[in-house]
Specification:
Elements lengths: L2 H13 L1 H20 L10 H20 L4 H17 L3 H17 L14 H16 L2 E2 L22 H21 L1 H5 L8 H27 L6 H22 L13 H21 L3 E2 L7 H10 L3 H14 L2 E2 L2 E2 H16 L17 E8 L4 E9 L6 E9 L1
Parallel strand pairs: 1-5, 2-3
Antiparallel strand pairs: 3-4, 5-6, 6-7
């Protein structure tokens, strides 16, 4: 979460009982998580946490009945509830709270403006969380209820960025639109046999790629203008944006292709991304991060894509090794769990054969339509995928579960 909003939530909690109890519950769980050590993935609430969590719900319900509660306050409480549930490993409950916040935002008749110059709005925080969650839902099931769709953000500010933060918001706009596009045409990849993409799909993809090109142009101009003036934190953020934007470019380019071999033409991109990602991982380790509630899309996502979509053995294994090195949870994304899933998919595709290059893994042996269910509290993941065993396009579903 942006530090400005962390500070404002603490300030608001002094005057608002519902938010104060939500913050106390979250802070207590957060402290337990850090004291428990790196081997602990979830923490159980004690009496203090439960008492404050219930009082937060009670105070909020009472106030909503008595007066018209400020919407920003409700969204702040939602943020605390999301963090509370994630720490306990209750992904589905966190998802419910996120959807509640998104519904509130969608019901607003006007876009919120920043309260202070340079400070993002709480709507933008939830827009980021929305993108973050949808990116995870592309590969995982946490609820039968789809994520609430926000109205499309405006795009006119993608032509020029004055600050890195504006570039970050612009990239989230693009990613939000991209995931909506991917969901619309997901049936092309999930079909039992290859389907031709409708002409409008190609037009839509071209529009998405044009937006990304526009973003890259404005982003490079910003970096050229600010060269030598970036602080360490800004440099880290600029690398993160570059990695995410390159990952988005690959996702868009392959979005309408049924064959998994289409990813082979991006081996050089995957290889180039590993160096900056490694720098980001080392920075996180140096900072001692174990749990990150940043609403930014985590580097786990491009690492997982490289590990599972790049079939060049050394590149994908380096990506898995970096995932195992992260030891950080970015909300729904858990690098250690994703590394275990990626290793299992590598075993499935290589099938104990000697693989020297991506060409050694035939299309029929590659896992298609991979769907993941993570049960954090049970420490178990379930994967479902489709492969062709004998005849061309004679696909069969395979399922398996693993504990960690």
């Amino acid at each position: 979460m942006d530090w400005e909003w962390s500070r404002m939530i603490l300030a608001a909690s002094i005057a608002e009982p519902s938010l104060r109890h939500a913050v106390l519950a979250f802070a207590s769980l957060h402290e337990k998580f850090f004291k428990a050590g790196p081997s602990v993935q979830i923490v159980e609430p004690d009496g203090f946490v439960l008492q404050n969590y219930n009082r937060a719900i009670g105070e909020l319900s009472t106030n909503l009945k008595a007066i018209s509660q400020p919407t920003d306050l409700i969204l702040m409480v939602c943020l605390m509830f999301i963090g509370n549930e994630l720490l306990q490993g209750n992904n589905s409950s966190a998802y419910v709270h996120l959807n509640c916040g998104l519904k509130i935002i969608r019901s607003r008749t006007a876009r919120a403006k920043p309260n202070f110059p340079g400070v993002v709005t709480i709507e933008q925080i939830f827009q980021r969380l929305h993108t973050h969650t949808v990116s995870f839902l592309e590969i995982a099931n946490i609820s039968n209820t789809p994520v609430v769709q926000l109205c499309d953000p405006v795009t006119e500010d993608l032509r020029e960025f004055r600050k890195l933060r504006e570039a970050g918001e612009g990239l989230h706009i693009i990613m939000s639109r991209m995931y909506k596009f991917l969901q619309q045409y997901a049936y092309l990849k999930n079909a039992s046999t290859p389907l031709a993409a409708p002409p409008v799909a190609s037009v839509d993809r071209n529009n998405q790629e044009d937006l990304l090109h526009q973003w890259f142009t404005a982003y490079r101009a910003l970096l050229k203008r600010e060269s030598g003036n970036l602080k360490p934190g800004e440099l880290y953020y600029s690398i993160q944006l570059h990695v995410l934007a390159r990952a988005v470019s690959v996702m868009l380019a392959t979005s309408l292709d049924y064959e998994e071999t289409t990813y082979d033409r991006f081996e050089s991109v995957f290889s180039d991304l590993l160096k900056p990602i490694s720098a980001l991982v080392e920075a996180e380790i140096k900072a001692g991060l174990r749990l990150n509630f940043s609403a930014q899309v985590p580097i786990d996502q491009p690492l997982y894509m490289i590990a599972t979509k790049c079939r060049q053995p050394s590149i994908r294994r380096e990506a898995v090794a970096l995932l195992e090195k992260v030891k950080t949870r970015h909300g729904l994304w858990d690098a250690l769990v994703m590394a275990k899933v990626a290793r299992r998919l590598i075993e499935i595709e290589e099938d104990l054969t000697y693989v020297q290059s991506s060409a050694d893994i035939l299309e029929s042996k590659r896992a298609h339509c991979v769907n993941l269910t993570v049960e954090r509290r049970e420490q178990r993941f379930h994967i479902r995928y489709r492969r062709c065993e004998e005849h061309e396009y004679d696909w069969a579903w395979e399922e398996e579960s693993h504990s960690w």
